[in-house]
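fold-stage: in
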Amino acid sequence: MIERKNEVKQGVIAAVLSAAALAGSLYGMKALDYRGVFMPGTVINGEDASGHTVSEMEEILGKYDLTVRFREGKQERIPGKKIEYHYVSDGSLESLMENQKLYLWGLGLYRETPYEISEEKAYSQEKLMEVIDSMPQLKKENMTAPEDAHLGYEDGQFVVTPEVEGTTLDPSLAKEMIIGAVNGEKETLDLAGAEGVYSSPEVRKDDEDLGEEAEQLNDLAGARVVYDLPGGETEVLDGPILKEWLEVDDEGDYYRDDDLWDERITEFVKELADEVDTVYKEHPFTTHEGDEITVPGKGYYGYRIDKKNEAEQLWEELDGNEQLEREPVYWRTEAADPDDNHGFGGDYVEVDLSLQHLWIYKDGEVVLETDVVSGTNDNEHRTPAGAFFAYDKKRDTVLRGDKQDDGEWGYETPVKYWIRLTDTGIGIHDANWRYSFGGNIWRWSGSHGCINTPPSMMPEIFELVEENMPVVVHYGDTQ
C-alpha cells in the first residue's frame, strides 16, 4: 500500500517537472521573437515601442505635425512629411535593442520599462519656408485692417459700433514664431492670441468719449421722420442728417443753435418740395384717342407741399425726438397714385382743344361728352393747355373782363353755370349766345379764353364735375 502511494507521488512530480520543462521551453522560444524588435512594456521617450523595429521607432519618433491658429477661427496644418521632418539616429535605439535581456520579456506583460534617449530631429528649412509662404493668412491681399470702435446708427438710435480686430499681422514675426514652434516641436501655435503679432484697434467699444457722444446725439438728434411720397418712394430724415445740423463747442460737445436749426429745417422742406411738387410741371397723360402726350406745366394740378405748415410740424417732431412715418403736409395732392392713369385716376375731365371736344370720365368710363368752343387762336385769348383742378363752382354769376381805364369792365357776361379752372379767370361755362360748337370756330371766333359749352349740356356737366376734380386741357397732335 505504501509502495503504491510512492508511485503516485513520483508520477505527479514527474508530470509537474515535465510541464515546467515544456513551459520553459515555450517561454524561451517566445523570447526568440524579440530578437529584432523591442520587448513588451518597452516605452521610449513616451512612445510605446513594443513589437517595433529600430527603423519603425525612428519613424515614430520622427513623426510631427504643427497646427497654426489664426484669427477668425482659421488654422493651417504643417505636416512633418511636407517639410521632410525626421528623427536623426545616434545609435541609441540600436544600443537599446542590443542590450535587451530577452529572457525577461515576460515582465513587460505586467509592467512598463521606460527609457529616455537623445532625440535629435531635422527638417528642410527650404520646405518649411515654402509651406509658410503659401499660407493665405500671411499674404497682405488677404488681410483686413483693424477698425476702431466708432459711432454708428441703428434702428433710429446712435450706438457705439464695436471695434473690428481685423486680420492684419506682421508676416516676419509670424514666420519667426512658426519656425520657433517647429524647432521646439510644439504641436500647436496660437498666433491669434500671441502678443504683438496682429495689429489692433486703437479705440474700443468701452471708450468713454464714444459713449458720451452717442448719448448727446440721441438727446439732440434722436428723431426719425420717414416721409411716404407719391409712387411708393420714401424720404428719411434721421440722426445722421440731423447730426450735421448741430454745432460743436470748443470741448467737443454737441449743441443746437435754434436759428441755424430753423434754417436747416426750412432748407430741408424746400428740397423736399422741389422733389415732390408737380404743380406747374409737365404731366404725362393718355388721351381719349389713346395717345401718350405730355401736358404743359401751366396748370396747378399736382402735388404741392405746404412748406410753412410742414416746417412747423417738423420742428415740433424733431424737438420731441419723435420717430414716425407720415406723408408731408400738402397744400394740394393729385387725385391718385402716379401709377393710376399718371395720377389722374378714373374721375377727370379731358378737353382736346384741337378737336374742340370735352369728355367727362367716371371710374375710367366716359359718362358725358360734348363739342365746345375755346379761346380765339391768338396770343391774347388762346386757352392755355395744362393740368388743372376744378377750382370752384358757381351758379348764376357774371364773368367780367379786365377793368378799363374808365372804370368799366372789358366785358360783363352773365352765365348760369361756372366751373373755374385758373385764378386768372379761365373756366368752363354755358354760352347761350352761341348756336354751334366744335369745328374750327375757335380759330377766328372763339372765347376770351374760357371753354364755352352748349347750354343744354352744362347743367349735367355742372353736376358731374366736382370741386378739385382733375381737368386736363391739351391741344392733342394738331394746332
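fold-stage: in (second)
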Amino acid sequence: MLNSEDRITIINYRLEKARQSPKEAKSIANLGYWNLVGNRLYYTVYYASSALILDKGFKAKTHSGIIALIGEKFILPGLLDRKYGQLFSRLFSLRQAGDYDDMFDATESEVMPYVQEVENYLNAVGELLTFGRNQS
C-alpha cells in the first residue's frame, strides 16, 4: 500500500512521462518513423490514464485493465468524453500492430491526426486530477 506522499510522487512521475511522450512523438515524426510515433502517442494516453487511475485510488495491472477502468470509471459516468475511450482503444491497436504484427507499417496520414486528440486527452485528464500537478 502506498503512502500519500509516494502516491503523489508516482502520479506526478507518470504525468511528466505523459507530457514528454508527445514531444518525443513530434520529434520522431520528423524522421518519418510512424510506428514509433503511434507508440509514443499511445504511451501518452497510457501514462496519463495510469496517473488518473492511481489519483482516484483504483488499480490495474495490465494495459487492457487500464483501458477497461478508464471506460468503467470515467467514460461511462460521463467524466470523460466517449471519444477518448475510442482514442485509447485505437492507439492501443495501432501500438500493438506496430510492435508485433508482421507486414504492418503505419502511415503519416494514419497517425498524425491523433496528435491533437492526445493533447486534448491530456487536458481532460488534468481537469479530473486531485493530487497530480496539471502542468503543461
